[in-house]
Write a structure and sequence with these properties.
By secondary structure, the chain is mainly alpha-helical. Helices cover 60% and strands 5% of the residues. It has one domain: Orthogonal Bundle (Tetracycline Repressor, domain 2), CATH 1.10.357. The chain has a 3-stranded antiparallel beta sheet with strand order 1-2-5, with no helix packed on it. A hairpin with a 4-residue loop joins β1 and β2. The longest helix is centred in the middle third of the chain and has 24 residues, at 102-125.
């Protein structure tokens, strides 16, 4: 579902309770405005699931949420299936009825990530007449996702496991292609309107943009070195990409 526009150019990205693999895995939503951008990130719960949470979710959903929390705060290899079952409030047998192991849970994470990337893609393509504004909104929202410390920590766990088990990589690669292609489409439209120079083709430029946002966000989370407003990756990308009169 594309983001809805709420008067005055405000796009509301609906709540997403799914992970984002390239640099972040975090339930979040963003409210962003053309002239001045606001981002609200609904941070991942630090506490174990509450009784109300258990009553309002099915077992499969509780298991996945518990796995995400455990992988983030204990590490993938330090987390056992029994740990996940206990955190989810289900029996070990019930857990295995849903997932054959932790690798299967990673596959579920990739599936959920697909939903996140679909939301980002929809946001990029929602207003084809204003690609520059769509790009600026995306830069800010994506950076907010990938810069969260919990996102970085959980993403590192997933990336390490995918590197050890290449068979797990394909769904994540497909998700990345989806996001990259949507970004490349919007960049191409901005090039057609003359707002971005055509020196670099849209697809490699989209890949470069994602690399810049992700690497800076990870560095910021790991080394705790927040940039000034003038030197944030979003501002620098806008200065580098957009043609100025």
């Amino acid at each position: 579902m594309p983001p809805a526009e709420n008067g005055g150019g405000v796009f509301i990205f609906p709540p997403i309770r799914t992970p984002l693999s390239r640099g972040s895995i975090l339930p979040a939503y963003a409210i962003l405005k053309y002239e001045r951008t606001f981002v609200h990130v609904d941070l991942w719960r630090q506490a174990p699931p509450s009784p109300f949470w258990e009553l309002t979710m099915g077992n499969r959903e509780k298991i996945v949420e518990a796995a995400l929390h455990s992988f983030t705060h204990q590490g993938f290899h330090q987390t056992s299936m029994r740990d996940i079952a206990q955190a989810a409030g289900v029996s070990v047998g019930n857990l295995y009825n849903h997932f054959s192991g932790k690798e299967a849970l990673i596959g579920e994470i990739a599936l959920r990530e697909n939903g996140v990337f679909a939301e980002f893609a929809a946001g990029l393509l929602a207003d084809r007449k204003r690609p520059k504004q769509a790009l600026s909104i995306f830069f800010t929202a994506y950076h907010a996702f990938v810069a969260e410390p919990d996102n970085v920590q959980l993403s590192a766990e997933i990336v390490a496991e995918v590197a050890r088990t290449p068979a797990l990589a394909e769904p994540f690669s497909a998700n990345q292609r989806q996001l990259t292609e949507a970004l490349a489409t919007t960049i191409a439209e901005a090039q057609q309107t003359g707002e971005i120079a055509t020196a670099i083709a849209p697809l490699p430029l989209a890949q470069l943009v994602l690399d810049v946002i992700e690497s800076q966000a990870w560095r910021q989370a790991i080394f705790a070195s927040p940039a000034s407003e003038e030197t944030t990756p979003v501002r620098l990308l806008e200065q580098l990409l957009y043609r100025h009169p």
